[in-house]
Design goal:
Layout (H helix, E strand, L loop, with lengths): L11 H12 L3 E5 L5 E5 H17 L7 E5 L4 H12 L3 E4 L6 H11 L1 E6 L4 H7 L8 E4 L15 E3 H6 L15 E7 L7 E6 H11 L12 E4 L6 H4 L1 H8 L2 E4 L6 H10 L4 E4 L1 H11 L11 E4 L6 H11 L2 E7 L6 E4 L11 H8 L3 E3 L4 E5 L14 E6 L21 E9 L4 E7 L4 E3 L2 E3 L1 H9 L4 E11 L3 E10 L7 H7 L12 E4 L13 H7 L9
Parallel strand pairs: 1-11, 3-4, 3-5, 4-8, 5-6, 6-7, 10-11, 10-12, 12-13, 13-14, 24-25
Antiparallel strand pairs: 1-2, 8-9, 14-15, 15-16, 16-20, 17-18, 18-19, 19-20, 21-22, 23-24
Length: about 550
């Protein structure tokens, strides 16, 4: 016997309709490429997203045709989020930090038909358009008078001209909620990038779950600053959760430096922010020497890579901002866990609370997880046993676009490539990527733990730990360190700093001072490239 409820598909168009009807006056503030601040609202975004849908119809795009973006966080990008997917096409956000060869390959593999881009990325478009013959229309996200002349890009139009003459009414189509809504390519796999293809159902369910009180806890009372890019896993789904809850959105555009982010937080009374540790490192680096404080910011979600304890302490103790440690990946839409305290933790001493906050947190509703040994045996949740982390759920990838890489699942579970522990209360802690874990004398050493201790030193700006071959122990850890400007610390001082903070055998064998640590397109440390740079390095006493 079936239930007697109405059968309405979960579609992204429903999110923007809700935002317009119930939160139409909530602000959307964007710092534009031009440098000015633009003010819009959910009602205006909804109206202009309908014009986007008409413009795509006029371009004769078919259902499920791909529309690509190379764009910063801003109101026009937000309009594309809803206009493209709501009309039944697939939004393909491309990471502009990738090499032009990769961008051309990705655009061709996705079979993009339209490419919308901020003018910042015109040189990228000029570099790839000749290699992307299937793209029929290029749209510069600008006013008509800003459209560059003699750009060399074919079929180029300004966004405002493209949508400006279109009607503002549009009947959003109804279709299967399992239809594709957006796609994101991941570089975290072997070989060529592979695309996670999200559905309307998975995206809507993720938006619901992400907004829950023990996850991002978004509401109409929040002013949210997504510093995490909209070209990176749909800004962790925040645009969709924001439409669902009707909160104010504040977009930083291309200005990602500490000074610009701080000024935007203060001017727009931001209460909630989300981004990767490198961005917050720049923000804190601007605030401390200038003796600045936050007047409205209360919470920040930090993900993308492990958040150093020193950063959590700085936000919490120095500035009164709660840090919510998060974990996920492109294949997970992306949220899998978020770290919030349970009621019984509230009275714990600060040092005990910190031990919990350093973990990536509990699985949010919709995500199941387990840790397994190399031979596939499920391991205990005791907070000590390391295992390969597997996940499953309604917004976790089943396979990659076009079947690239074959079937990634193991008995219905997706292997994340992370090594983790899970404690008895369900708090998960990433100890390493499986490819980065250091195996020394039959024991595992977490490179993340080694890095966190280094970054806690006042002279250290960034640290990356890798394993180096050792004739006796198989591998031993070394830590590459970038000093803060003007700071001084010696190898011996930093190694001594580890004493008492970790087991003696987990202390790195050496410290290598470098000018910079290579970063990937999403701001993560590229340890593969670091290993290449240090291929001729020899461990002391090895």
């Amino acid at each position: 016997m079936l239930g007697l409820m109405q059968n309405q598909p979960l579609l992204i168009s429903g999110l923007i309709q809700h935002a317009e009807r119930h939160h139409g006056d909530a602000e959307i503030v964007s710092r534009r490429v031009e440098g000015d601040l633009h003010r819009s609202s959910w009602a205006q975004v909804a109206r202009r997203s309908r014009q986007v849908a008409h413009a795509l119809d006029a371009t004769n795009l078919l259902f499920s045709d791909r529309v690509a973006t190379l764009a910063w966080n801003g109101y026009r990008h937000l309009e594309l989020y809803f206009g493209v997917s709501g009309s039944g096409r697939v939004l393909h956000t491309i990471n502009p930090r990738l090499h032009p060869d990769q961008i051309a390959w990705i655009a061709n593999h996705a079979e993009d038909q339209v490419l919308c881009f901020d003018l910042t990325f015109l040189p990228l478009v000029q570099a790839v358009h000749a290699r992307c013959p299937q793209i029929r229309r290029y749209v510069a996200l600008c006013e008509p008078d800003k459209l560059p002349r003699d750009s060399g890009v074919p079929n180029l139009v300004s966004y405002e001209d493209w949508i400006g003459g279109q009607p503002t009414t549009y009947d959003w189509p109804t279709f299967d909620e399992n239809s594709a809504s957006s796609m994101c390519y991941t570089s975290g796999t072997t070989g060529n990038p592979k695309a996670a293809l999200y559905s309307h159902r998975s995206t809507t369910l993720h938006a619901y779950a992400a907004a829950l009180p023990d996850v991002m806890a978004l509401s109409a009372r929040d002013a949210v600053l997504p510093v995490v890019p909209m070209f990176h896993v749909n800004a962790w789904g925040i645009p969709y959760s924001a439409a669902l809850t009707g909160c104010k959105l504040v977009f930083p555009g291309p200005a990602m430096d500490g000074k610009s982010i701080y000024e935007l937080i203060e001017a727009e009374k931001v209460s909630y922010a989300a981004g990767v540790p490198t961005v917050w490192q720049m923000l804190l680096g601007h605030m401390k020497p200038n003796n600045l404080r936050f007047s409205t910011l209360k919470r920040t979600v930090i993900g993308g890579s492990a958040c150093p304890p020193a950063m959590i302490t700085a936000f919490n103790d120095d500035y009164g901002v709660e840090v919510l440690h998060a974990w996920g990946m492109t294949e997970m839409s992306p949220l899998g866990t978020l770290c919030t305290l349970k009621n019984r933790h509230l009275e714990l001493p600060p040092e005990e609370k910190m031990k919990i906050r350093l973990k990536q947190g509990r699985a949010i509703y919709g995500v199941d997880m387990k840790i397994v040994s190399d031979d596939g045996q499920e391991l205990p949740w005791d907070g000590k046993t390391y295992g390969n982390l597997y996940v499953k759920g309604p917004w976790i990838v089943r396979e990659y676009f076009k079947g690239e890489g074959g079937d990634p699942l193991v008995d219905g579970w997706f292997p994340t490539g992370d090594v983790a522990t899970i404690d008895a209360e369900g708090y998960m802690q990433i100890t390493d990527r499986s490819k980065d874990v250091i195996k020394s004398g039959g024991e595992w050493i977490s490179s993340i733990d080694v890095e966190n201790i280094a970054v806690a030193h006042p002279a250290v700006a960034m640290a990356a730990c890798i394993g180096m071959k050792h004739p006796k122990w198989d591998e031993r850890p070394v830590v590459a360190v970038v000093k803060k400007p003007g700071a001084q610390v010696t190898r011996e001082e930093l190694l001594k700093f580890y004493e008492g903070k970790t087991a003696k055998w987990q202390i790195p064998d050496d410290v290598i001072f470098v000018d910079a640590i290579p970063l990937g397109a999403t701001g993560k440390m590229l340890k593969t490239r670091l290993r290449e740079q240090l291929k001729d390095y020899k461990l002391p006493n090895s």
